[in-house]
Design brief:
Layout: H1 2-13, H2 35-39, H3 64-89, E1 96-103, H4 109-115, E2 125-129, H5 135-138, H6 144-147, E3 156-160, H7 165-172, H8 178-197, E4 200-208, H9 211-223, H10 234-239, H11 242-255, E5 263-267, H12 271-289, H13 300-309
Parallel strand pairs: 1-3, 1-4, 2-3, 4-5
Amino acid sequence: MARAKEKKDDKKDGKAAKGSGKKRRGSPPVRSAALRELLRVPVGKPVDLSSYSASEIPAGPSGKAAGIEATARLAPRLAELQERLYAASTAGDRRRLLLVLQGMDTSGKGGTVKHVIGHFNPSGCRIRAFKAPTTEERGHPFLWRINRALPVPGEIGIFDRSHYEDVLIARVRDLVPRRDLGRRYGQINRWEESLADDGVTIVKVFLHISYEEQRARLLERLDNPDKHWKFNAGDIEERALWPAYQEAYELALERCSTSEAPWYLVPADRKWYRNWAISTLLMEHLEALDPRYPPGDFDVAECRRQLLAS
């Protein structure tokens, strides 16, 4: 079954780089430009997810083999930038980066953590997967548990799901009154703005997977006993709510894509493209920060003399 899926992926990747299905609304032709410009969700404009293809290749490698190779080539640069970010924090630089991953079940949040964050030194990363809130967490404002998981200066934080669950599943499942739900978008925007003011670069990624691809990935889990632990019968019930979740995501992307913390929409039907795109987005943001190694506060020549004499 896995081999058949790989062949299907290879065949799909052999199609034109523009992909199939509906095209990204308002997207320019493939060109040499920052990926974060190309994948950024427009600020203050309505979002229609049906106008975005989950299998397109907006820019970058046009095939699986080239994509995997290109992602591997990014690893040394990402590791260097992470080390520089951490080193700068030892001299008082408060900057850090937070990657927020959101998407439907099977869209690849866990896979991103495995394949992309693996480029970094784990000691400099703070990874948090948010599940249903605990009894203690429900006794606090919804951002309370998120604040406790933020990266400290010099770190790269990764959220597998996030505070956006409080305007996604909370909306779909009617977990809070609508008047309270409506206020949460503004609370999120003000909170993210305060983080940006404090030196946090927020990279919010929506992993856009198609309805058909989700079915295929869920079937793979059912057909492989080694993947049964990843399958939950409740996934089928959640899948029935697909239209409601798409609407909830559209509202979150529209209302919470700001200049301080924009959303990026990454086509996620092709796992290799997802990995390349997120790796590239992280590299572009880290390069924009341009963290520097701090100078030594000691006499280099004297320390060298003493070492040679020892």
